[in-house]
Amino acid sequence: MTYSFSKPLTLAAVMALGLAGCNNSSQTSTDAPADDATTTEATTNGTLQKIKDSGTIVVGHRDSSIPFSYIADDPNQPIGYAHDLEMKVVEAVKQKLNMPDLNVRYNLITSQTRIPLVQNGTVDFECGSTTNNEERQKQVAFSNGFFEIGTRLLTKKKTLVFKILKT
């Protein structure tokens, strides 16, 4: 699959690297917390430094979150829309770090493990169907959204329910 992405989307995806370590429980301080911009910049730089030092970027992926990230024919190769976005992030990181031969390692995540694995640095980032809400924003950083969904009521057009909904 080939998708065309705008530069802002690619840059927003790179911001996903700010996910790693956003809630590093090993850090203790009595100082007042830094503002969000400073914290995000420091975290992003820490993640990029970790990637540079190790020569590997670790990408979190799901195995059955169709169409976002899933395993099809090759059990070692995720595919899907979110995976394609992840590869855009990987390319941007390669360019930013001037590391064209940067290794990519995939780490399977689940809905229960995705946030803890990003927090503890096991994965550098994940791109998937993780809802951005206030509670999760306390734990990790989010890029701009790339997929929107909503729940709606479905009914025949010529019914009382439809007439009530339209008023």
Notes on the structure:
Helices cover 37% and strands 13% of the residues. With 167 residues, it is α/β, with parallel strands linked by helices. It has one domain (7-166): Periplasmic binding protein-like II (D-Maltodextrin-Binding Protein, domain 2, 3-Layer(aba) Sandwich). The strands form two sheets. Strands 5-1-6 form a three-stranded parallel β-sheet. A hairpin with a 3-residue loop joins strand 2 and strand 3 (69-71). Helix 1 (7-15) crosses helix 3. The termini are far apart.
* Largest sheet, strands/sense/barrel: 3 strands, parallel
Given the C-alpha coordinates, what overall shape results?
elongated
What CATH calls the topology is: D-Maltodextrin-Binding Protein, domain 2
Q: Write the H/E string, N to C.
A: HHEEEEHEHEHH
- In DSSP terms (H or I, runs of 4 or more residues), the helix count works out at 6
Helix content: 25-40%
The domain count comes to: 1
- CA(first)-CA(last) distance: 43 Å
Q: What class do helices, strands and sheet pairing give?
A: alpha/beta
CATH architectural category: 3-Layer(aba) Sandwich
